[in-house]
Amino acid sequence: MTLNQAPVRQWQRIAAHSTHHPRLLELGFMPLENVRVLQRSWFKNGALVVQVGDAVFGLRPDEAGQIEVHSSNEPAGGIATA
Amino acid sequence: MSTTTVDISGLAQRRLALLGNPNCGKTALFNRLTGSQQKVANYAGVTVELKRGLMKTTAGRSVTVIDLPGTYSLNASSQDEAVACAVVLGQSLREKAPDLTAVVLDATRLRRGLRLVAALKRQGVPMVVVLNMMDRVRAQGRDLGVARLQAAMGVPVVEATGISAQGGDALRHLLDRDDLWHQARPEPTALHLDADALRTDDAQAQAWLQAAGLDQPMQAHEWSRRIDGWLLQPVIGVLVLLVLLFLVFQAVFAWAKWPMGLIQVATAWVSEGVNTVLPVGLLKSLLIDGVIAGVGGVLVFLPQILILFFFILVLEESGYLPRAALLLDRLMGSIGLSGRAFIPLLSSFACAIPGIMAARTISDRRTKWVTVLIAPLMTCSARLPVYTLLISAFIPAKTVAGMSLPGLVLFGLYVMGILSAIAVAWVLKLWRGASEPVQLMMELPDYHWPRAKDVAIGLWQRASIFLRNVGGIILALTVILWFLSTFPQAPAGFAGSPIEYSFAGRIGQGLAGFFAPIGFNWQIVVALIPGLAAREVMVAALGTVYALSQTGDAVGTALAPMIAADWSLATGLSLLIWFVFAPQCLATLAVVRKEMGGWAMPVGMAAFLFSLAYGASWVTYRLALNLGGF
Amino acid sequence: MNYDLIAVMALGALAVAFLVRRYWQVSKGQAPVCGNCDNCACDD
Predict the structure, then answer these.
(1) Is position B161 within any domain?
(2) Is B622 inside a domain boundary?
């Protein structure tokens, strides 16, 4: 699924093959990173609040929709988060 | 021959650039190092321009420090980021390459910052690494083991805390090392910045962290998460935002009453003093009707401006603004902008100029253009004296449902400015047709308590800017206006007020015909002209014009009752609405020309806003006349 | 001598001189158009 479809407050892992805007990569949305949606807007096209590692971003649904994720079982562990 | 090396390189000023992610505290560190009082929040919360300052190392050497706009990578996606990258890579045309770059990292978000370090290292840029915000790390009871990180990276690393007095000392000490300053600058090689390069940089960053034993996650952001749980909740968040805004406007009126009264009393006292001391004549008139009536008329609004700025500063410092931007993103998207345009637009409430400059953070050219166009519709603080004057003259000081009516009207005027901006943006969106969606991708930095000292410094700066303007341009224009309103002097036996005989009076009466349909009398027209230089001058000009219109010894009479007696309510309302849309002060137009390049935009803007103002005033005037027979 | 007129003309001349100097400085890029550099923390 893509990030904008992810359930709220559940950690996901960015898919290794996800191809999204390079800018998102620079912000920290790298493959295999832990990510989760913190807030959803009530509007269909409203911005999402997303946490990737330690940083929090506001993303539009179409931006979040570029990021492929699958659910992971453990929260940010191992290597220090982005 | 003895080989005493004469260090001629020390004669050239050493140059250090501060580079880093947005919100890593670079600017606070810059202030700490240079002792400069540049406002940390910069009205917009973002650095869009280079700032230069001078710092002293521990040994007393002088170093030029350059604060750069924040950037996430060397791949610039907006104008301000491009500036930072170009300078560091030695490609800037405006700024020589720095001798050394200090990469400032948020110590609570190391991995991301280290990616930037890795990219810079690949490019061979001479650098040191500064771990900033160490106070937050220590609050966690953590220590970062700087020595190990330094060993792993092969680059000098120091700790820093931008907000504490000695926070920059480690860096000052480090900069005394001569060897750091003699590193070779990078050759202008091709930048490798694609996704693969990013992965390489990330791998490098992770490797460093592992080698330094720093791979445990930092839990430094819990409070911010929790607060966001409420403030970003769709319904509660918007409610909080609206209530906040509303409270600000009530406060601007309620809190200002007492200090404004004080200033008025002081002004009247000075006026009376001059009146008793000087004989009747030109000098007396210049001082009382010109300087005191004019300048005093503007000075009285200082408390309100400060109260408004107090709230703006507190909101900025607390980190709340990006949240507000997020809540409004949907709305902004519907008019063709993104939440990113919010912060430049909000800055415009202080002054349109920093707001327009803050639009450099918008990567999309079309959005930037629209943002610059509508920024002036945001009620800038210079309009506040005009609004307050008119409101106190024409709106009764009643309380409606527990809220002060003047405060409500002021709020309403601000809302009108915002709505008109939205309308203009929406029309532009329709006219230009659907285009690619605009980027948001906005980081939400941690919340932190606004520091009283920073807010106080910001207010102090604002007050001194205001007073300097008053003592400078406003005073000068008021004096000149007095001249134009006094000469040529009316002959004895001239029926009517002497000012009508003067240059200013004649100009005003000449133009009055054009403005009559919207209810402006010639005094208003005369006052509008110097108002082009600065909005506040309008109030000073009215003060002078009306003081000179008094026949008799009415000294120190406040302006508001005078215009309330002279103008109809319809005229007052019409002028109020005029100012919501009125064309910019010349300074703003000049900045727009500089930012957008060329005259087309500022001239077009001025013409457009003039027509909008005229039309809106006309509608208001006709409505007020017909509805109330005022 | 009309001291009154002289005093007033002197003050007027000062005002004009101030504005002219301002305009001159701005057009040479030495002073900000906005009134104060702290406004935008520009690098003048």
Answers:
(1) yes
(2) no
